[in-house]
Amino acid sequence: MKINVLLGVAGVNKLESEKALKVGRLFQFLVLLALLVVFAQVVMSFTDFAIEADWVTNTVWLVFFLELVVNLYNVKNRVRYLKENWLNVLIVVIAFPGVSWGSEWALIVRSLRLLLFVRFLTSFFKDFISILNRNRFGQILVASAFIIFGAGALFAYIEDKSLWDGVWYSLVTITTVGYGDIVPTTQSGRVFGIFLILFGVVFFSLVTANIAAFLIGSEQRKLEIDILDYMKATEKRLISQQLMNDKHVDRIIQHMSSEIKELKIEIQKIKHDKESSR
To answer: With contact defined as beta carbons under 8 Å apart, do 97 and 61 qualify?
Structure first.
């Protein structure tokens, strides 16, 4: 069983109609915005700038409520939707603006809504796994981790710094960020930094290239699917048109055959009349 189904945050099932899926995707975007507001509320509650405006809380609840009601209206299998989204129902009920939970419980209720992030994280992890399986990208990431830690340890040994400082220097150098808070101070450290910069630019390009290839490839695959669907639809239209043409030709042939048969009968009748008149 999928984790989002188990937690009751599955959204609209893929077996539903295209209209239900389209509306569900729209509300997913609105729910994501609402979750970002909830996340900001939870984070700000630990500071001196807590967001306690009633209209914000009511608007967030309204988004969850509308998603539940509208999706229930559009889906065909409402029982399945309720089973796969039981947490949505629970959040709508317990987070009703008319119920006062107190300051401590209010924070718990808000935090409970953040479980809906699982719905979006599962989709993200699917894409992430696809990236890892593409062009040995997972092996490249593992190799990158070894290189960063190895280069960091070597830099720490050369510059007589801690391992963490060395790993930090290696990471910001290979990723070409270069904060400059940790820099080599010895001649050997600078020489090592030169090689690390040159090697890091090349190696880090492999990582970014794989991500770019995945994003471009996704658009390319979508375009290919659209073209294939268009060609299949065109083929169906041509087959349907051919069948209609064949039926029309059959009707014409049958009509012509009937006309010819009647014409032959008329000719024979005329000949018979002439012979009788003689």
So the answer is: yes
